[in-house]
Amino acid sequence: MSSQRMPITVAGLRLKRLVREKWGLISWLAIPTIIVFLMSLIAGTGSGKLTGKLLITDHDESAVSQLLAGSFNQGPLAEIFTAKQVTEDEGRQLMDAGEASAWITIDAGFGEAFMNNQPGQLRLVKNPAQSILPQMVETSMQLLVDAATYIQILFAEELAVLKPMLETQKFDDANLVALTLGIKQQLERLESTLFPPQLKLIEKQVAEVEETSTNITFGLLMFPGAIIMALIFSANSLAVLIWDDAGNGVIPRLAATPKALQAYSTGQFLGAAAVFTFLTTVLATLGGLYFALPWWQIPAIIVWLVFAGLVLYAMFVFIALLMPTGKVANITISATTFPLLMLGGSFFPMESMPPWLAGIGQFLPNGFLLKGLKDWLLRQEPMMEALWLPAVLGLVMLAAFWLLSRVLVRQLIHKV
Question: What's the DSSP call for residue 166?
């Protein structure tokens, strides 16, 4: 066998063994997939937004009560609550079943009491099994009540004009004009008090830029780290296999020919690169589709993650070859794996860690490689600016570990 073809042959044999055993590949694919998708589902499809159901029973059915009920279907509240009109019996049943966050009841005569500047009554029932959403409803109602009080004070004359029109459902054009002008004049008088200028507007033409904002969710924060988790699991398993080859006599036979041993080491890296390419292609494509990433980013993600996998593989091979026996190598690499996963952003996103702990993780090989990817992919930093430093550090580590491993692999013949 020629020395030129031997690395390819070694890589092919390594891949055939992995395919034959197959459960390793399946676990490397399944573990990060399950973690990311489950965390996304737990967080509500990865959005992390609170959502709740609000029940409204309107016994008044006036313009004022409809305006009050409609306020929960507009603005930020509409993004949080799904408001549903229910009868008294339906509201009681849904609240007893715990299927709603809160229930508002508007008593008959509420609208008339408001127009006459008299006390009205709103009833609120909160779900005791929830804390945040019912409190948001209560706070919103308090704000609406305060706003209604100020409207009654500031626009008493305008409400007096509006009241007979609402009662008779006859809207006179002259009265509407007078009502509009009265509201406008009142707002102009109050403008300096209610809406004081806080900022000075300076108009300046700027170059148009392409909008590339990404909706960052908890699942998306987990996505790159989970793929690196798969790379770490596969890299440490592949690194320990060199000890199996040594125990089976492969390394001692190849040691008789230095070029053959070097070709063997190169073939191991080629086989690892092929495994990493397969894993990252599958996982990055699935994640890109699930999180709706731009299609052009996926190839760049795959290339970077394969590079990260090779750096980690070279590190694990170096650690394995330093050990006196294959059993010690297996234990040492396993003991190294979980701190890397915990601190390097695979089990938990660095964004959710305490700052001092995240700072430690960014100095680990998987940590700074992951941070560079996230800076470009999620934080929209320019690719060269985000990746050049991690790429340089990774290349230095890869070259150093690879050269050291070529030297250490020769010493295996004295350890088996």
Answer: H
- 132 shares its domain with 229: no
- Distant-in-sequence, close-in-space partners of 40: CB < 8 Å, separation ≥ 6: 46, 217, 218, 219, 222, 290
Q: What is the pTM of this model?
A: 0.60
Contacts of residue 220, defined as CB under 8 A and 6 or more positions apart, other chains included, come to 46, 214, 291, 378
Q: Return the SS3 of 60.
A: coil
In which domain, by residue range, is 83 found?
52-154
Q: Total domain count for the chain?
A: 2
Residue with tokens 């990817």: 373
Q: The tokens 């709603």 sit on which residue? A: 100
Backbone angles phi, psi at 116, to 5 degrees: -90, 10
DSSP H helices in 248-296: 250-254, 258-290
Q: Which of the 8 DSSP states describes residue 210?
A: -
Nearest residue to 254 (alpha-carbon basis) of 145, 370, 392, 416: 416
Q: Do 225 and 121 share a structural domain?
A: no
Query: pLDDT for 43-56, tens place per residue?
Result: 544 444 456 788 99
| 242 and 354 housed in the same domain | yes
Say how far apart CA 238 and CA 134 lie, in whole Å. 53
**pLDDT tens readout for residues 189-226:** 656 555 555 555 566 665 554 444 456 677 788 889 98
